[in-house]
Amino acid sequence: MNKEKWRWFNLFVKIFWLIASVCVIVLTFDWFIGLDIFEDYDYSWEYHYFPSSCNVWVVKLHGDLYSYLIDDDLDYNWNSIYDEVSSEHIRQWIEYFSNDDQFDMIVLDIDSYGWSPYWAEEVMNALVRSDKDTVALIRESWLSAAYYSAIWADKIVASKMSDVWSIWATMSYLNYSEQNKDNWIKFEELATWKFKNSWSPDKELTDEERELFMRDLQKIHDYFVTDVAEHRNLDIEKVKELADWSSMLWVQALQEWLIDEIWDLDTIKQEFFDKYWYEANFCVY
């Protein structure tokens, strides 16, 4: 190799090691002190590592159900630091596992007081589209939106101590208008649309506003009742009777066909073995 080529080769090597050294230093600082230099990197569900032995994936619907979680609610591993979960992530997990031949069954592990019917419907539709065996497992409690999210599972199961709350919808909120009066606080309404401030807790609801909200609330309730009757193959009039917000233990839920079986994770493992003739290996999201 002549001197000119050797000089360029040495220059290339030096530049390469300089860039590599800078990258190592930056990554080290980002890792140890959390500079968030790569905060725009896509840390989505696709990049999580899945053990090769898994054939059943347990997706947790624990805590309050939201559409998405803001960055301030997540730790550095992108896990929620509060008792909440997002329908966005649950849907993505279900869709991912449904398209992966490694997994034979998806278990939706539910212990939640619900929240929004829209977010619950998003999870429910992911189960509808899945061609895997799906099981919704009730832990301690699930309220209306949590139940709504699971009604399209192949099996809805619970323990003997599960508390299944009823089918209902609410828009209730605290009204501070009387407290404001006691504190000499007056609400001045300035809006170009007469319903713009309807949800303000600092004013009384008008009769027209109450009628409007109850109209929409009743529609949500009717959709809920209709979907439960359709997906659970129940008489709609019977579901309407059950939709009174009362709670029920597993005995009544089983009698009313709101759930299918009294199972736990060990029972699911046995059912899996009976169907597939090999052991179930659970991984939990």
Which tags fit this structure?
two-stranded parallel ribbon; eight-stranded mixed beta sheet; flat; 16% strand; 2-enoyl-CoA Hydratase, Chain A, domain 1; alpha/beta; 285 residues
Topology:
Elements: H1 3-33, E1 56-62, E2 64-66, E3 84-86, H2 87-98, E4 105-112, H3 117-129, E5 133-142, H4 144-150, E6 155-158, E7 163-165, H5 177-182, H6 207-231, H7 236-242, E8 247-249, H8 250-255, E9 261-262, H9 265-276, E10 282-284
Parallel strand pairs: 1-4, 1-10, 2-3, 4-5, 5-6, 5-7, 6-9
Antiparallel strand pairs: 7-8
Helix pairs in contact: 2-3, 3-4, 6-7
Q: Quick summary of this structure?
A:
The chain is an alpha/beta fold and 285 residues long. The protein has helices at residues 3-33, 87-98, 117-129, 144-150, 177-182, 207-231, 236-242, 250-255, 265-276; strands spanning 56-62, 64-66, 84-86, 105-112, 133-142, 155-158, 163-165, 247-249, 261-262, 282-284. It has two domains: 1-41, no CATH class; 54-284, Alpha-Beta Complex (2-enoyl-CoA Hydratase, Chain A, domain 1), CATH 3.90.226.10.
Assembly type: single chain
Mean pLDDT: 78
Secondary-structure arrangement, i.e. CATH architecture of the largest domain? Alpha-Beta Complex
Our Rg estimate from Cα atoms comes to 26 Å
Query: CATH top level of the largest domain?
Result: Alpha Beta
Largest sheet: 8 strands, mixed
CATH superfamily of the largest domain: 2-enoyl-CoA Hydratase, Chain A, domain 1
**Which stretches of 5+ consecutive residues score pLDDT under 50?**
35-49
Helix-residue proportion: 40-55%
Number of domains: 2
For the terminal residues, how far apart are their CA atoms?
57 Å
Number of discrete helical segments:
9
Categorize the overall geometry. Answer: flat
**Content of β-strand:** 15-25%
Topology pattern, helix = H, strand = E: HEEEHEHEHEEHHHEHEHE
Which structural category fits the helices and strands? alpha/beta
Count all strands and give the number.
10
CATH domain topology of the largest domain: 2-enoyl-CoA Hydratase, Chain A, domain 1
